[in-house]
Amino acid sequence: MRRSLSVLLALTLFLAFPIGASAQSWFGGLFGSGGQDGSFESYSPSSLKFDVGYLFGDRGVRNDVTVKGDGKFFGRHCIRHEFPVQGWQLGATLQAPIKDDLGVVIRGTWLIPAQPKTLQTDDNVTSTAIREWSTEIEYYTLEAAMVYPVYSPFKFMGGLRFDSLIANFGDPVRRVDFSSSRTRDGMEHTYNVYIPYAGLAVQSGRALRVWMIGTPILRGQVKTRETVGGNRSSLEWNCSSFSSSSFVECGIDYERNLFGGTAGILAKWTSLCTKGNATFQDVTAIGVYEREPIDMSVRRQNILLAAQFSLPFRSPW
After folding, report:
1. Is the dihedral of CA 243, 287, 234, 220 positive or negative?
2. How far is CA 312 from CA 41, 77, 99, 265, 286, in A?
3. Which of 40, 44, 125, 175 is least buried, going by the fewest C-beta atoms within 10 A?
4. CA separation (Å) from 83 to 143, 166, 200?
5. Is 6 helix (H, G, I), strand (E, B) or coil?
6. CB 162 within 8 A of CB 197
7. Alpha carbon of 63 to those of 37, 166, 273: distances in Å?
8. Vertex 260, ends 259 and 266: CA angle to 5°?
């Protein structure tokens, strides 16, 4: 929670810094507005937009690990952990012109998560064990994008998003078998992923916008750390090179003028997938011991429904 609050404070201070609005032509709203002849009006200079909504993602994350099992430690296991990333999400977007028709969008989000129980299953070929965990989630995103009008009503978008998710699990309860489970067991999943994306937006008048962005290339780190019985030793794996990955996001927003600014609604669907290889490690006070190779995959899907409002944003200089 302390890390999330620090990120939110830094984001607020950053977005509060004024940016000039001297460009002659601008992409209006988040993606812009085009004239009938393909030109782009400068009716909307720099603006600061906020959105508040609910992020839906019941069992939105599915973390699969297959321990190949060469007999060194576990034997063959298929471990699946499904947990939600959902709750109230706060977002802030700063948009500003740079030169001519080129604009920049800087955005950050922070989740106030719901903390439901989650399930972990362990299939060791001969039997399946299930246990339930208490869950604490920290999730935020930071991104910067460039927007350029290709031809009315189409705009090209290219940007980089940092997506950070930390999920802590504790107080496990056995549901089916899981004789190895202890009440003081703990687990942490960490996903820090850089998403370089590109996409296209379509503007209908000044009110309705539809967009889609995506990429087949993700960079970052996915890791898991599990402690058994409150011991200092732990079982860990870390994947920093993905064999395959994908990211797709589709969205639509509608807004109208209100009290000198705008107000509207936002809806979007996001999907993120990664696959890779790693090695289970037994980390003790004596040293680190490599155990068995694993195949891992992470899939996440979320839907956001939000209300949004924006204010004109001009430099005082």
Report:
1. negative
2. 16, 56, 19, 18, 60
3. 125
4. 25, 12, 31
5. helix
6. no
7. 49, 13, 10
8. 80
Task: Write the pLDDT tens digit of every residue in 239-274.
Answer: 999 999 999 999 999 988 887 788 999 999 999 999
Segment 31-85, tens digit of pLDDT:
333 333 333 333 345 778 899 999 998 778 999 998 876 655 566 778 899 999 9
SS3 assignment, position 208? strand
Closest to 141 (Cα-Cα) out of 51, 239, 260: 51
Q: What is the pTM of this model?
A: 0.82
Is there a cis peptide before residue 116, judged by omega within 30 degrees of 0?
no
Q: Which residues, 6 or more positions from 33, have their beta carbon under 8 angstroms from its beta carbon?
A: 27, 40, 41, 43, 44, 203, 205, 206
**Contact between 147 and 105 (Cβ < 8 Å):** yes
**CA distance to 74, 115, 143, per residue, from 15 (Å):** 49, 29, 12
Q: Are strands 261-283 and 234-239 parallel, antiparallel or unpaired?
A: antiparallel
Place of tokens 């290709």: 150
**Residue 160: strand, helix, or coil:** strand
Q: Which residues contact 282 (CB under 8 A, 6 or more apart)?
A: 73, 233, 235, 288, 289, 290, 291
Which of these, 142, 128, 147, lies nearest to 78 by C-alpha position? 128
Residue type for position 67? V
